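Lecture notes, continued. The same structure-token format from the folding unit now serves as the input rather than the output. Read the line below as a description of shape only.
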């Protein structure tokens, strides 16, 4: 069986991290997989460094003419000779482009990473990264099979338990967009500081709100407490999480929350907002903590309890690690994805 694993875009955000793990999983399943990415994208070298089969493609990622016709021609040139049985597509606009380019020559599975129902009708089936995303797609009227496969993680080293640092080291990671809630996080840290609580915070990421967040860091007098450490590449993510004591996700909305699972997989205390994805991952008080979203006081209260040992933390990190490995590690999802491939190819009943 021949599989094409396809993603466009040039950054290295969450969907790209997931894409790499899909590629590794297909290799583990002994499928002949060709990974197709935008030429010149960082992802191209990342896949090559992993010893994975990769091709680059240059085209316009748009449905507007005359660019659409040009892009379809480019896709045909790369895709048709491969003669794939099934194509996994991780960016929704590409579903329509590939369907028009190939017609019914291959089955298409769209991997849906967020609350977006555009350009999905050309897919034979969808994979949603959470039950919340699946419910959203059903409400939007998609009638074909929808499966749930969460974003995956893969530990390269075994994490170690460690005592909290003095002062405690908090961390966060993500794209700097409004919905990610980093402005709420900085307000919560301002509240903590005014309560006389010592801490350090490492914020990893990049995005359009970077200068605004720098302004808030100045406004809230957090220069000595908060450090922006830039984007963390794939091979440095474990090192980043291992440097923390507590990981914080302050999002207003989150279709999954891959960083939550990554932190849990490194045996970290996780504090996340009670929004869609994290609420499916975290059992509050069992393997992490959930707080009200867009509420800096609630976040500050929870962090204070953790830092000052006012809340029972026994077994939290071990439960978090168990949850991450049993439910989100690549190896644990191999059979699930293999069953979906067979289900879509041979028109069996949806799982």
């Amino acid at each position: 069986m021949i599989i094409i694993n396809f993603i466009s875009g040039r950054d290295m955000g969450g969907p790209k991290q997931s894409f790499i793990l899909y590629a590794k999983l297909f290799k583990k399943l002994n499928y002949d997989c060709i990974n197709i990415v935008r030429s010149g994208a960082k992802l191209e070298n990342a896949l090559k460094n992993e010893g994975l089969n990769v091709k680059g493609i240059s085209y316009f990622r748009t449905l507007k003419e005359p660019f659409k016709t040009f892009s379809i021609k480019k896709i045909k040139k790369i895709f048709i000779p491969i003669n794939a049985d099934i194509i996994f597509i991780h960016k929704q606009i590409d579903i329509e482009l590939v369907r028009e380019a190939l017609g019914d020559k291959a089955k298409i599975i769209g991997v849906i990473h967020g609350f977006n129902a555009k350009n999905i009708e050309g897919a034979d089936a969808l994979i949603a990264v959470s039950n919340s995303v699946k419910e959203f797609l059903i409400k939007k009227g998609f009638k074909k099979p929808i499966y749930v496969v969460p974003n995956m993680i893969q530990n390269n080293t075994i994490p170690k338990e460690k005592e909290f640092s003095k002062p405690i080291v908090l961390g966060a990671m993500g794209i700097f967009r409004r919905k990610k809630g980093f402005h709420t996080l900085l307000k919560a840290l301002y509240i903590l500081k005014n309560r006389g609580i010592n801490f350090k915070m490492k914020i990893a990421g990049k995005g359009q709100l970077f200068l605004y967040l720098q302004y808030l860091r100045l406004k809230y007098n957090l220069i000595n407490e908060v450090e922006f450490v830039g984007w963390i590449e794939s091979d440095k993510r474990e090192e980043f999480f291992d440097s923390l004591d507590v990981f914080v996700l302050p999002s207003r909305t989150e279709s999954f929350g891959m960083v939550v699972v990554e932190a849990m997989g490194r045996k970290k205390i996780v504090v996340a907002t009670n929004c869609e994805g994290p609420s499916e991952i975290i059992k509050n008080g069992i393997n992490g903590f959930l707080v009200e979203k867009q509420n800096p006081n609630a976040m500050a209260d929870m962090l204070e309890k953790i830092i000052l040992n006012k809340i029972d933390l026994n077994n939290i990190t071990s439960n978090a690690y168990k949850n991450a490995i049993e439910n989100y590690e690549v190896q644990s999802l191999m059979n699930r994805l293999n069953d979906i491939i067979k289900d879509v190819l041979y028109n069996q009943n949806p799982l």
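Point for the exam: The chain has two domains: 2-152+330-345, 168-327.
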